[in-house]
Amino acid sequence: MTPTLSVRQASPADIAAVDTLLARSYPRLLAPDYPPSIMVLAIPRIARARPELLASGTYFLAEDGAGRVLAAGGWTRGNPLGPEGSGGSGHVRHVATDPDLTRRGIGRALMGRVMLDARRAGVEWLDCLSTRTAVPFYQALGFRALHPVDVPLAPGIVFPAIRMMANLRQTAI
Q1: Calpha distance 23→17 (Å, rounded)
Q2: CA-to-CA separations, 120 to 16, 91, 169, in angstroms, rounded
Q3: Bridge partners for 144 per DSSP
Q4: Cα angle: 89, vertex 91, 94; to 5 degrees
Q5: Which run of H or of E encompasses 119?
Q6: Per-residue confidence in pLDDT tens, the chain, 173 aa
Q7: Quick one: which of 63, 80, 109, 151 has the most CB atoms within 10 Å?
Q8: Is residue 46 within a helix (H) or strand (E), and if so which, with residue range?
Q9: Helix (H, G, I), strand (E, B) or coil at 92
Q10: How far is CA 149 from CA 5, 24, 146, 160, in A?
Q11: How far apart are CA 129 and CA 148, in angstroms?
């Protein structure tokens, strides 16, 4: 059963709830697609809320009727791989869904809000560095896979991802 759902803008006060969600979600959902050697190095770096995102005004939370965070994610302006981004491009940021509640439309509802918010802000192209696990999810939202990319997490530590892109002018939101 899908819980009652609302999507709202995050704030810095949500850091503990987002930390809890990321710490539950990433280790469980990514494990089938990444070897333990990558997980042990990546999870401590990626499963932590980013205060600047929570304060950005472009990061959102999907909550149930009791206010429990079920999913989180957002966007920022620019290109994740370099300065070639323009005012018309944005970048999907730190998306996660509760691992016990996947495939119930919660992530889709959250990303619908993210994509609509970005489009209203004048973003035409939304870039995404997707985990291997999330590629089918993003494809279902209208993103297309471009190529594999290694995301640097720390000196000597990279996380394999897939660069994806959606044209918000042509994607149904």
Answers
A1: 10
A2: 29, 15, 11
A3: 165
A4: 170
A5: helix 106-120
A6: 556 899 999 999 999 999 999 999 999 999 999 999 999 999 999 999 999 999 999 999 999 999 999 999 999 998 776 654 456 899 999 999 999 999 999 999 999 999 999 999 999 999 999 999 999 999 999 999 999 999 999 998 999 999 999 999 987 77
A7: 63
A8: helix 36-46
A9: strand
A10: 34, 25, 9, 6
A11: 9
Strands 157-167 and 59-63: unpaired
Classify the phi-psi angles of 44: left when phi > 0, otherwise alpha if psi is within -120 to 50, otherwise beta.
Answer: alpha
**Structural domains of the chain in order of their starting residue, each with its CATH number:** 6-167 (3.40.630.30)
- Distance of alpha carbon 151 from alpha carbon 122, whole angstroms: 26
Q: Which residues contact 80 (CB under 8 A, 6 or more apart)?
A: 91, 127, 129, 163
Q: Which of 88, 65, 70, 83 is nearest to 14 (CA)?
A: 70
- Pull the structure tokens for residue 138: 């993003």
For the question of whether the overall pTM of this predicted structure is more than 0.85, the answer is yes
pLDDT tens track for 113-151: 999 999 999 999 999 999 999 999 999 999 999 999 999
Helix axes 36-46, 15-30, angle to 10 degrees: 170
The one-letter code for the residue type at 87 is G
Cα–Cα nearest to 69, from 98, 29, 37: 98
